[in-house]
Amino acid sequence: MALSFMEGNEALARGAVAAGCNFFAGYPITPATTIFNSMLKMLPPTGGICIQGEDEIASMGYCIGASMAGKKALTATSGPGISLYSEQISFAIGSEIPLVIADVQRLGPSTGSATRGADSDIQFLRWGSTSGVPVIVLAPKDALDCYVLAVHAFNYAEEFRCPVFIASNKEIGMTSESFDLDSVVLPPIVERKIFSGDSYLPFEAEAKKAPPFLPIGGKTIVRQTSSTHGPDGYITIAPEVIAQNQERLRQKIHSARNRITLFEEDIKENSDTLIISYGVTSRSVEEAVQKLEKKGNPVSTLTLKTLWPVPEELLRKKAKLFKRIVVVEMNLGQYVNEIRQILCDKQVEFYGQMNGVLITPGKIMEVIENE
Amino acid sequence: MNSFLNKNRPLVYCPGCSHEKITTGLDKAFVNLGLDADKIVIVTDIGCSGLFDTFFNVHALHGIHGRALTYASGLKLANPDLNVVVTMGDGGLGIGGAHVLAACRKNLDLTLIILNNFNFGMTGGQYSATTPADAIVGSGFLNQAEIPIDICAIAKSAGATYIDRCSGLDQNLPGKIIKAIQHKGFSLIETLGMCTGRYTKKNNLTPKGIDQIIEDLPEMPGAIEKNQRPEYGERYRALAKERNVFPGAITIEKQIEFKDYQHQEVVILGSAGMRIVTAGEIVCYAGLCAGMNVSMKNDYNITVLRGQSVSEILISPEKIGYPGIESPSVVLALSDEGIQRRKKIFANLKPGTFVLKEKSVDIPETKADVTEIDFKELKIKKQDWALASLGLMAKNENAINKEMLNYALKLRFNEKLYQIALETIEKIFQA
After folding, report:
1. Could you list the residue range(s) of the whole structural domain that residue B117 is in?
2. Which of A257, A369, B71, B203 gives A65 a disulfide partner, CB atoms 3.0 to 4.6 angstroms apart?
C-alpha cells in the first residue's frame, strides 16, 4: 500500500479539483494560503482559472461573477477574511449563487493569531450574513476529510445553489499527514440543474428547491440581482412574493437537513457516555476514548461533519441511548447550545478550550473521568 | 436590433437627470456596434446608476455597492466572449476604489462608465469622493474639510490603457462609448452629470458649468499611449497555458519491512534557516518508506528568516489520531530559540528519550538520555545541523534507521542534493 502525504489545505484543493472546481479567487491569509498555492498549481493544467484578488471582497466578487457564468468556484480564507466576505456571502445566499468557501479557522477574535488554531467561527459562519437564511457548514477532522468534504461541499453548493462553508482549522489545514488517497471513494459529482423549458425566469423554482440555472453569457438572457427580487429577477415589493421566496430559501436547505447530515460514530453498547465533537478536536476525543476503553471505561463518540443545518434528528436518535452527554469544542462553547436545545431533556456537559493549542486526549480523559 | 432598451421598464430618472441621456447613449452604442444581446452583460451596483441593468434586455448582474468591477472581472475571465459594461456612480467609486485601481492595473477587457454627479443622489445628496469642497451638500459642512479626487488622473497613474471624460449630455457620448468598448483592455469613461433632484439647483450647476469643469480638468485622450500593453485575460491565458503539468500528490510506497515498529514522536527544535521543515519532511518520508502513518506540524514565525522553527512529527503503525506531541521519543535540540519555544517539554521527558543537544545550546534539566554533539568540530554548517542530526538518529536507530533515511533522502532531493546530503550524513556515520 502507498500512502499520500499532504497538508489538509492541499487535500481540500485536491478534493475541489476532483469535484470539478474550475475557478478560484482568493487573497493570501495564514493559515489558508496554501489552498490558494495549491489551486494555483492545479487549476492551470486542468483548464481552470486561479486569481489573486486585490482583497477578500474582490476575491468573493470574482467567484460570484465566475459562478454566474457557470463555473464551479472556490475561495479560501480565515476568520478575518470571512468578516470581509460577509456582504458577498449575503449576496450569494440571497441570490442563490453556488460557491464553496473554505474557512481555515484561526484563533480570534479579530486579527487574533495567524498561526494558532481554534474553531472560532462556528456561529459566525451560520449568522455572519444578513437575513438569517440557513447555510451549510461542513467540518473536517483531518486531511482525508478535507479531500472528501470538498466534494460534498461542491455537490451541495450546486444542488442548493448556495455558498457552502468548509470549517477547517489551522491544526488541520497546516498539518501534513499521510492517508490512503488512492483508495478513497468520492461521492458522485452533482452538477447544478440547467433550465430546459421555454421561457426562463431566473428565480422561478419549485417549492423547497433551488431554481434551475442558466449562465450569464448564454443564449438566454439572464438577470442576477442582490436586491429583493421576484422570479423574474427584478426588484419586488409584493409581500406575498417576498415571503414565498424567503420561505423557499429557508426550506430548500431546512427540508433537506437529514440528507445533508454527515457524521461518524463509534457507539459502544456497554457505555453510558456519549462525547459529541467536531473538527480536529474529535481526533483527541477518539484517542481519549481508546485509552479509556483500555482502562475499562467504554465511552461512545459522535463526530459531526455537518454542523449547519444542525443535524437534529441524528442528535436526538444517537443521544437517546446515553445517560451522559459531553460536548467538547475548541472554543468556549459555540455549538453546545445548539445541542442543548435539541437534547433539552438531557444534562449536556461541556468542555471547551480557547488558548491556541489543541485539546489533548489527556484533558478529555480527565473530563470524562472526573464526573 | 435597433434598441436594447426594455419597453416594459421605462426610465425612471428625475427630469433633467443626465443618467437618462447616458442610458440612451449606451443603447445607441450597443446598436451601432452591432452586438448581440446575449453577448452583452451590464454590471451595476447601488444608487441611481445601479438602475441601468433594469432598462436593458441584455444579461445583467446587479450587486453590492462598489463591487461591480469584481463581478465583472469574474464574468469576463469565465467568459472572454462577453462584452462587459460596468456602470458606477461616484458613490461606488469611493467605496470600491481598490477595485478601480486593480482594474486599471490588470487591464482586463471591461468598460467602466462612471456616472459622476458629485453627490449621493439616492440617500439625500451627501458628499462623495468627487464632491467639490465648496459645494452645498446633505452632509453639512463635512465636504469643506476634504478635496475631491480626479479619477481619470488616478486611473492614468494606475495604468489604465483607455480613459475618456465628457459631459453626460455630450452629443458624442455614443461614439465615445463605442470607442471605449472597442478598446481591447480596460476602458474608463468618466461622465460628469446633472443631479437635478439633489445637487444642481443648490449648487447652480448647469450643463455649461459641467462643460467648464471638464475644460478645466486635464484632457483625457482615450487610449493612453504610455500605458498600452496586452489585455489581462489574453496574457493570463498565455501564461497559464505554459503551466500544463498537474502536480500529483506525494505518494510513497512501502519499501522496507520494519517489524514491531513502535509509535514515535520526534521534535526538532531549531531556528529559521536551519532547514528544520525539510528535516521534518525527511523524517516523515522515512516513516512512509517503512509503511507507517505520519503527521507533521510546524511552528515558525511569520518573519520567515528569523525566530524559532519547530517541527513535530508522529510516526506510527496505527492511524494517527491526536496530531500533537504527548510523549516525545526523540528531541533534537539545535537552537536556543527553538528550545525556548518548547522548554516545558524537557521536565517531562522520560528516561530513554533520545535528546540530541548541539554543544552550543543550553537545555533545561531533563531525565532523558542526552547526547551532546559538536557539529562545528565536525565542520558541519548550521543549515545542515538538522539533516546531520537525522544521520545520528539513523545511526542509533532512534525512530528511523539508515535504510529508511536513505530512501527518504532519495525521495526528497534530486540526485545532486541527495549526494550532498549523503556526504553530510556520512560525516556523522563516521564520527
Report:
1. 18-241
2. B71
